[in-house]
Amino acid sequence: MGRTVKIFDTTLRDGEQSPGCSMNLNEKIEVAKQLEALKVDIIEAGFAAASPGDAAAIAAIADTVRGATICSLARCREQDIEAAWNSIRRAESARIHTFLATSPVHMEYKLKMTPEQVLESVAHNVAFAKKFCSDIEFSAEDATRSDLDFLCRVVETAIKAGATTINIPDTVGYMIPQEYASRIKYLREHTEGIENVILSCHMHNDLGMAVANSLAGVEAGIDQIECTINGIGERAGNASMEECVMALKTRADHFGIGCNIETTQIYRASRMIQTITGVAVAPTKPIVGANAFAHEAGIHQHGVMANKETYEIMTPESVGIPKNAIVLGKHSGRHAFEERLHELGYTLDHEKLEKAFEKFKILADKKKVIKDRDLEGLIGAVPVSGEERYTLDRFVINSGNTITSTAVIRVKKGDEMFERAAASDGPINASFHAIDKIIGKEIVLEDYSLRALTDGEDAQSEAIVKIRVDGSNEVVTGRGVSVDVMEASIKAYINGINKYFND
Ligand SMILES: CC(=O)SCCNC(=O)CCNC(=O)[C@H](O)C(C)(C)COP(=O)(O)OP(=O)(O)OC[C@H]1O[C@@H](n2cnc3c(N)ncnc32)[C@H](O)[C@@H]1OP(=O)(O)O
Ligand SMILES: CC(C)C(=O)C(=O)O
Ligand SMILES: [Mg+2]
């Protein structure tokens, strides 16, 4: 294979801009490590000027991750660029990514700048960033609704000022593949110096064409795809990494273009993002959805039994969905347990493995067969982030359709026990109110969901809560897993509270 494209992952920046997809420091580091395992070329770790928390997370990732370039976004403002540099400066390889909108509507109404002022700002700020860092990316925000000749001038200006990567984003997901390809062709033919830089695409999915547009861009000469795990991102999301990468791999006959991604890490990355954000992908989501490799119809099943290629264009193993060779249950030992975790992509240190094994045995007493989803639930998909300040000790709930629900909850904090009771119109509310009394803070429940992790009567439930503590701007995601729906819900609420205190 001749050409390769770089994969620029922006799960931690644009992905985190998805409503409800905020991540804390430990979670961002876990995601960054998984991106390292995926062998992405560039990790956009955040937007340093957005908040001290964002800047700290980028710096921690710059200190931790090796192999990938670590990048921070910055507006065309000196203070943003300085904040970006300060957060990435310790990375093995660092990039400042600065951007400015170039479409008439953005320039006039949002920036209140004339086209000439935009050109001046690009020249000034790219040159300013270049003083700190040799690797500079410039993005012309809303490039796809910008006047093409003006866009050529902007790109030329950025290149002259020192940009080494030029991104042509479809900020509002407006493009059609052929149209984007011809824009790229026009830019390549009418922009001085463009042959000396990396050309990048960054497509949004408002019309469901982010992946198709990225691939059309690559065919038209784009060298870098900006994308996110599970396609999370602003509004309808960004181009999904797993779809772009597997399209290039599966249709190598058509594209003849490779990338460095270790595709067997895709499934784990997808599960990790779902667990951390509490945002599940649709069962029909390509590559990573629960049905992506399931065959329901008789004719399909018959075909697959004869030869998988009748209905499978890629194998589940190629994206890291492991074959279920070992059945885990109450008679399984540490070796089989550890082996299965390995197959699922988890390597736990001795202490975490022992804790997980203990939990596994307790669960195996309640459930006949422990499935992969149960295991992921059990180890929390990512090793427990931060210290567990509060843990659930016990609960008693009284509920019915003709009575007010009451809950008595006992929570452990260090060596102390705290117990409170509360009444409400439902058992979940009553439990959460009892916990609020113990914590002594105002906690607003923004969202709550419950789903079965596996099928069958003894399935474990996974509860996800999104809470806001003490009027904080940050919504925290908590997660709890149990065969008992009430226990899962209470654990999720306590997990969210622990995360709030760990942030
Ligand atoms: C297409 C994208 O995804 S762009 C990235 C979007 N991501 C985010 O916005 C998340 C992080 N953002 C934030 O935390 C905040 O918006 C901050 C800290 C960056 C700025 O906050 P505030 O100072 O309160 O400004 P606010 O967000 O209300 O408005 C944006 C300001 O930046 C200006 N601006 C927007 N884009 C740019 C740019 N690329 N370069 C320079 N200025 C810009 C706007 O014109 C506006 O300026 P004004 O305050 O002088 O009117
Ligand atoms: C900052 C830029 C690259 C962006 O996210 C967009 O234009 O969508
Ligand atoms: Mg974007």
From TrEMBL:
Residues in Pyruvate carboxyltransferase domain copies: 5-265
E.C. number: 2.3.3.13
Family annotation (InterPro entries): 2-IPM_HCS-like, 2-isopropylmalate_synth_dimer, AIPM/Hcit_synth_CS, Aldolase_TIM, LeuA/HCS_post-cat, LeuA_allosteric_dom_sf, LeuA_bact_synth, PYR_CT
Region (Regulatory domain), start-end ranges: 391-503
Top-rank taxon, per record: Bacteria
Record's keyword annotation contains Manganese: yes
CDD domains listed in its UniProt record: DRE_TIM_IPMS
Record-linked PROSITE patterns: AIPM_HOMOCIT_SYNTH_1 (PS00815), AIPM_HOMOCIT_SYNTH_2 (PS00816), PYR_CT (PS50991)
SMART domains for this protein: LeuA_dimer
A UniProt-annotated Pfam family: LeuA_dimer
Residues engaged in binding Mn(2+): 14, 202, 204, 238
Assigned keywords, A-Z: Acyltransferase, Amino-acid biosynthesis, Branched-chain amino acid biosynthesis, Cytoplasm, Leucine biosynthesis, Manganese, Metal-binding, Transferase
GO molecular function ontology, one term from the record: acetyl-CoA C-acetyltransferase activity
Homology family: Belongs to the alpha-IPM synthase/homocitrate synthase family. LeuA type 1 subfamily.
HAMAP family: LeuA_type1
Primary role: Catalyzes the condensation of the acetyl group of acetyl-CoA with 3-methyl-2-oxobutanoate (2-ketoisovalerate) to form 3-carboxy-3-hydroxy-4-methylpentanoate (2-isopropylmalate).
Protein name per its UniProtKB record: 2-isopropylmalate synthase
